[in-house]
């Protein structure tokens, strides 16, 4: 008799009454089964919506003429894809969609292969999260520098990419900052550069203006010219009109001030993953127990 089969038979010789009854009835725990199914149906719908938004955003921008101009060489095309915020929606949405689909179908059809794929994927994601947290702590200085470099790249592509424009504006208005290191970083954008023939030359976006009210006229019309010629001003003079502090240090400060909130969200996500893993393993064990009995 094969060793694996003998071990299964031996486990059924003196099982607990509940497990014995489960095997005799030939039915898995319905509470576990439909909890896995119902919860993952919600995640499946959410994942599909996020994926659809990401694909729609990338297709829409691909149809714009500005997107064609950015893809004129290999380096810029790769950068355009990697820096596209919609790519995050696509990757995250696809991951949630696939995993939740496997969990839904696996629990509904009592398929150990799909449930095992789901559980092992959760373990892999958990390991990646822990490793990522450790690496962030170890290389936090390098990450801070990469953050500043990424923000400068967003400044360069500010006009061409509407998604990056929205993100940069929200960061600058929310954290009351301007540029990566300082407001003069906007000189790296060809439209805001002082040598540009554009009307924006030597200026900064309206999101750099001192307050939200400063960006609007008395008729509550957005004043996009409130930051014009700010780069050509000295810092003391510019301080009266725009934020002069860079966003790199502001983002790091925000992270440090909200560390407990970030940690709480991370712990909550880990707890959800562990609960999902336990439920999946419980159902797999029930299915294998029934198969071994019959």
UniProtKB/TrEMBL annotation:
Gene3D superfamilies: Tetraspanin. GO terms for cellular component: membrane. It is found in: Membrane. Keywords: Disulfide bond, Membrane, Transmembrane, Transmembrane helix. Pfam families: Tetraspanin. Disulfide bonds join 178-194. It is a multi-pass membrane protein. Residues 1-20 are annotated as: Disordered. Belongs to the tetraspanin (TM4SF) family. This is Tetraspanin. It comes from Branchiostoma floridae (Florida lancelet). The gene is LOC118412258.
């Amino acid at each position: 008799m094969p060793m694996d089969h003998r071990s299964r038979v031996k486990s059924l010789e003196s099982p607990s009454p509940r497990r014995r009854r489960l095997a005799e009835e030939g039915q898995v725990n319905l509470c576990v089964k439909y909890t896995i199914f119902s919860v993952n149906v919600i995640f499946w719908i959410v994942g599909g919506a996020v994926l659809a938004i990401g694909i729609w955003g990338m297709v829409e921008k691909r149809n714009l003429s500005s997107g064609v101009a950015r893809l004129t060489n290999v380096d810029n095309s790769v950068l355009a894809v990697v820096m596209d915020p919609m790519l995050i929606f696509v990757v995250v949405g696809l991951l949630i969609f696939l995993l939740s689909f496997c969990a839904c179908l696996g629990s509904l059809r009592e398929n150990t292969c799909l449930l095992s794929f789901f559980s092992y994927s959760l373990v892999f994601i958990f390991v990646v999260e822990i490793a990522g947290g450790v690496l962030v702590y170890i290389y936090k200085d390098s990450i801070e520098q990469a953050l500043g470099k990424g923000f400068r790249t967003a400044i360069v592509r500010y006009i061409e990419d509407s998604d990056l424009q929205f993100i940069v504006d929200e960061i600058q208005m929310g954290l009351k900052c301007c540029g990566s290191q300082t407001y003069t970083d906007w000189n790296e954008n060809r439209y805001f550069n002082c040598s540009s023939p554009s009307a924006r030359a030597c200026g900064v976006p309206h999101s750099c203006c001192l307050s939200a009210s400063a960006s609007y006229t008395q008729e509550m019309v957005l004043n996009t010219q409130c930051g014009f010629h700010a780069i050509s001003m000295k810092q003391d003079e510019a301080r009266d009109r725009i934020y002069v502090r860079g966003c790199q240090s502001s983002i790091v400060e925000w992270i440090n001030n909200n560390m407990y909130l970030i940690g709480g969200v991370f712990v909550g996500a880990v707890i959800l993953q562990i609960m999902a893993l336990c439920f999946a393993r419980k159902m797999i064990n029930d299915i294998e127990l029934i198969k071994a009995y019959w």
